[in-house]
Amino acid sequence: MTVDNRIKGGLGGEYFEESTDVIMKAIDQLAEYFAGERKEFGIQLLMVGTPFQNQIWNELINIPYGETESYLGLSHRLSNDKAIRAVAAANGANALSIFVPCHRIIGSKGELVGYAGGTNVKKKLLELEGVLRKDIQLEIF
Predict the structure, then answer these.
(1) DSSP letter string over 73-140?
(2) At what angle do helices 51-61 and 84-92 cross, to 10 degrees?
(3) Which CATH code fits 2-128?
(4) How far is 64 from 67, CA to CA, in rounded Å?
């Protein structure tokens, strides 16, 4: 996978499957999130990307639970409205979804656009966070 290779190269390391305290803490916090009991994560993250990607990912972390932002809105935060495509590409390169909540990024007109896990998953995550009501059917692009 491209993301795995980027992370592997960026860290200069190998992957090993094992359980560690950090992995167990992440699993516990994700379970709490999906149970609706957690709105923020307390996991120290090591994000591997370009300085621009890291800037975008840090902006994603600052979008509160239950709120959304658009690609254009993220570009405004950077004081560069023309960076919208680069913002979208950086958002798509996020390897730590949920912890770095790229699902909170929607289109400028409120449409559910792009998500590596699929827009149906994005819709479910936004429903979980109370952004969308489960009984409302939206057109997903």
Answers:
(1) HHHHHTT-GGGHHHHHHHHHT-SSTTTS-GGGEE-TTS-B---TT-HHHHHHHHHHTTSS-TT----B
(2) 80
(3) 1.10.10.10
(4) 6
- Partner residues linked to 105 by β-bridges: 69
What does pTM read for this prediction?
A: 0.83
Q: Which residue has the tokens 């992440």?
A: 26
Task: Give catalytic residues, as residue numbers.
Answer: 102
Distance CA(25)–CA(28), nearest Å, equals: 5
CA distances from 4 to 34, 72, 78, 89 (A): 25, 28, 27, 17
Spatial separation of the C-alpha atoms in residues 92 and 114, rounded to whole Å? 8
Say what the pLDDT of residue 3 is.
59
Percent of the chain clearing pLDDT 70 (strictly above): 90
Task: Give the integer Cα–Cα distance in Å for 112 and 128.
Answer: 15
CB 128 within 8 A of CB 34: yes
pLDDT tens figures, 91-116: 999 989 999 999 999 988 888 888 88
